[in-house]
Amino acid sequence: MIDAVFTWVDGNDPIFQKKLRGHERDTEIQGALPQSAVSTRFKQNEELKYSVKLIRKHAPWLRKIFVVTDDQSPAWLTEQVCLEQGINLVDHKEIFRGFEEYLPTFNSQTIEAMLYRIPGLSEHFIYLNDDFFIIKPVQPGEYFLDGMPLIRGRWTWKNRHLAYMERKARRVLGKGKGLSGLVGPRPEMGFLGSFRYFRLAHAPYVVKRSTFSQYFQDEDFLRSVIQYRFRNSRQIWPIGYFANRSLRDGVAQQKKDSDWEYLDPLARNESLKSFLKGLQEDPAIKHFCVQSLDQFSSSEREVILGFLSNL
Questions:
Q1: Distance of CA 191 to the CA centre of its chain
Q2: 268 in a structural domain
Q3: Mean pLDDT in the chain?
Q4: Fewest beta carbons less than 10 Å away: which of 23, 96, 149, 179?
Q5: 273: confidence class by pLDDT, cuts 50, 70, 90
Q6: 71: containing domain
Q7: Are 173 and 214 in contact (CB under 8 A)?
């Protein structure tokens, strides 16, 4: 039994914007990232609608889909759609019960640290950003092997000089696309004993709930993670911490083959239509991430959404 989890926000919602303005001073605390409150983090172009549709088409074996929001719901996600598609809306207040002082939050990493507290969530689940898409049929064994998560990404060095040289070489060889956290050291590295760090792919994150809960059972440690309303350079990335510690502890395995691709509006070196055509024709690529869809031109967005509609 495997569930899927999304986090979702509508940055155009006037109530959300009012909350955001009411806590803008939090962006001035030490370590706050300058881009933590930029609009592109909260904009949505109905990516979730396409991602849910493709999940139900290509991974029909997933039991439930949980959508975690701040008292919001996409207009298309009616009660009837929820019933037909097996979708449960989960409010932040449910998963932050006992930690309400950290709400409202505008920080995806803070929210991710609490996902294991979703009521009724299965032991095994995959966590997706709303810009992650499963574009070809997949099976449970592509996410869990003998109950262990299969983690997508690549090993790199904790030493920033070695990591920089490796990233530079990968870019030259065209093998550096689609990895999370490629800029600068990650705070969670300090909590990990290994000299290497596993950089996750921009693809579904595979999680075992009981292991995640164990890693965050210390309340002081959990509070140190969720205290930030906006992204902060001092905050660990909970998913990255879970993946690295699970791999180190031998309770997860690396997914050896690269079955993902990534589209960045600022880092393309070929025509969009050619890129998407190659994506569709490559049987190995089953996961696709579109970074910041709102930053593409209107004609490019039309092409991308048309591509997703026809899968």
A1: 21
A2: no
A3: 88
A4: 23
A5: very high
A6: 2-132+141-259
A7: no
